Amino acid sequence: MKILVPLKRVPDPATTIRILADGTGIATDNVKWVINPFDEIAIEEALRIKERLKTGEVVLLTIGQSNWQEQLRTGLAMGADRAKLVVNDQPLDTLAIARVIAKIVAEEQPQLVILGKQAIDDDSNQVGQMLAELLGWPQATFASKVDIEGERCTVIREVDGGLETVAFPLPAVITTDLRLNEPRYASLPGIMKARKKELKEIPIGSLGLDLTPKLKIKELKAPPKRQAGRKVGSVEELVKLLHEEAKLI
Amino acid sequence: MNQQVTRQILWNVPPAFIIIMYALLGLLIVAFLQAGMYWYRRITLGASEDRFDQLARRAFLALRDAAGQGFVVRERWGWMHYTFYTAFIGLTIGTTIVLINSDLRELASLFGYHFYFYNGEFYLFFKAFMDTFFLMLIGGVIAAAARRFLTRPRPLAPPPGDRMLDNLENYLGYWYPLLMLVLVGITGLMLEGARINATHPNFTEWAYVGRRLGRLEGALGAGPTYHRWLWLVHVILVYGLLFAFPFSKLRHFLLAPVNLFFRNLGPRGRLKPIKDFETAETFGVSQVEQYSWKQLLDMSTCLECGRCTINCPTATTDKALNPKNLVITQREHLLAKSPYLLAARANGTADNGEAPAPPQGSLAAADMITQVATEQAVWDCTNCGWCEEGCPVGIEHIQRIDDMRRHLVLMESRFPQEATSAFKGIEVQGNPWGIAQEKRAEWADGLDIPVMAELEDPADIDVMYWVGCAGSYDERNQRVSRSFAGLMKQAGVRFAILGTQEMCTGDPARRLGNEYLYATMATQNLETINQYKPRRIVTQCPHCYHNLKKEYPDFGEVGYEVVHEAEFIDELIRAGRLRPRKEIARRVTYHDPCFMARHDRKWNSARRALGAIPGAELADVEQSRNRTYCCGAGGGCMWKEEVGPHRINAVRFDQLTAAKPETVATGCPFCMTMMTDAMKAKSLEDTMEVRDLSELVAESAGVSTR
Question: What is the predicted ipTM?
Answer without folding.
Answer: 0.88
